[in-house]
Amino acid sequence: MSFSNLGLSNEIIRAVTERGYTEPTPIQIQAIPAVLSGGDLLAGAQTGTGKTASFTLPLLHRLSHNNVKNTSNGYPAIRALILTPTRELAAQVELSVREYGKYLKLNSMVMYGGVSINPQKRLLKGGVDILVATPGRLLDHVQQGTVNLSQIEILVLDEADRMLDMGFIRDIRRILSLLPKQRQNLLFFATFSDKIKELATGLLNRPKMIEVARRNVTAETVAQKVYKVERDKKRQLLAHLIRKDNWYQVLVFTRTKYGADRLVKQLGEERIQALAIHGNKSQSARTHALEKFKNGSLQVLVATDIAARGLDISELPHVVNFDLPNVPEDYVHRIGRTGRAGASGQAISLVCADESHLLADIEKLIAQRLPFEVVAGFGDNSHSQPKPIANEPKHKSKDSKRPISSAAKPVPQKSAKQSTPRTATGGKKSDARPGASRRSGKRSR
Ligand code: AMP
Questions:
Q1: Whose CA is nearest to atom 12 of ligand 1?
Q2: Domains of the chain, residue spans
């Protein structure tokens, strides 16, 4: 199977070929023809399966083949709207739109909060075909009358389940009410739920349904281990582990923003270079930390679940759960970032006595008992003896309960170093863009 068999235009095929893609991934094989046909789509796929290109490529193809006259006065109308839960994901998706669309005369823009709104207004005034946005800032523009959604031809909800988890449902409904009735809708989710079902039922018109298997988190390439430790000794144990084997590119998860900041400070006192990304950090601080981490000049990145969500920082050598997540599924998302093709990754959890119930929930979800170790001097022997897990050892993830139409392997990933975001001209981005960007000189109207 090749990209040209899927019916994409030569300009798009040229761009993906230059990106180094030789063949479409399973989600792309299924989604691209469905989107090209103009119908609605309900697609289950995680980050790592090639899902972004699966909607971006046919979206670009359709927009470039439909000539429309912009009839609006004031702010020119937008033709495609892609909504994402987080700023980082919005920025990543828009980079893909620019890259895959570099031989087309279509403009794109990314829009999110935490940065000045005025440069965004200027770009909107100049005309944008494809808008990638987070819901809150989009509604700010709606309120100020600086965005025209009256001629949207295609709507994409990317990581819709996470948007619902983050409480965006009212914002989404408000945005939907502003769109023309006649349009194509694409809804992507990682984990199916009743809430997604409800959203899909109200939004989609006889959708094609696609689902590809999630990454097998219990793959042999990910070595999972628990260190039982006293709460007050977690920081010293982490520093000890990092130093002992000279770990580099360590992604550490904490439950709270405050916990992330405190850990960065404490690691700094131990002369271990760390930065945090979370919702209270400015956009430029988040971008700066991420860039340093990806290019290998930052040893430790400390993140909360939401901040790390959707980031293209998979295939890391070390993921550490400094705190266990409250929601066991988040453990699966977290450790899915390690395990390189061929090489092994490590997923370490530092667990104190009052987190025993969280560990039990995780072990139940992954139907696997995690090996544990106690390092002399750091140990916590107050853990109760684990009870056997019901139905062990089935070795099944929760998702395997649901029918899956085709099995997809994760896309072979580039190393974190290679995936540093670059501008369209090939230069490294030095800082957060001021909330909006576009290819220069390419205008469709
Ligand atoms: P996504 O699931 O959209 O986050 O994509 C995961 C990674 O796969 C990204 O780094 C993409 O650049 C890459 N990718 C997407 N499609 C392909 C493909 N057909 N062949 C190789 N890599 C791909």
A1: 50
A2: 3-214+426-439, 219-401
* Cβ–ligand 1 contact at 50 (below 6 Å): yes
- Rounded distance from Cα 228 to ligand 1 centre (Å): 37
**Backbone conformation region of residue 11, classed left if phi is above 0, alpha if psi is from -120 to 50, else beta:** alpha
The CA 149 to ligand 1 mean position distance, Å, reads 29
**Ligand 1, from 52, 159, 188, 189: best to mutate by most atoms within 8 Å of Cβ?**
52
Residue type, 385: Q
Per-residue pLDDT reduced to its tens digit, 232-279: 999 999 999 999 988 988 999 999 999 999 999 999 999 999 999 988
Question: Which atom, in ligand 1's list, is nearest to the CA of 52?
Answer: 3
Ligand 1, pocket-test mutation among 313, 411, 418, most atoms within 8 A of CB:
411
Topology, domain 3-214+426-439: Rossmann fold (3.40.50)
Nearest Cα residue to 337 out of 316, 320, 323, 310 = 316
Residue 96 in contact with ligand 1 by CB distance below 6 A = no
Q: Tens digits of per-residue pLDDT, 153-169?
A: 999 999 999 899 888 99
What superfamily would CATH give domain 219-401? P-loop containing nucleotide triphosphate hydrolases (3.40.50.300)
pTM over 0.70? The answer is no
The yes-or-no answer to whether 3-214+426-439 and 219-401 have a common fold is yes
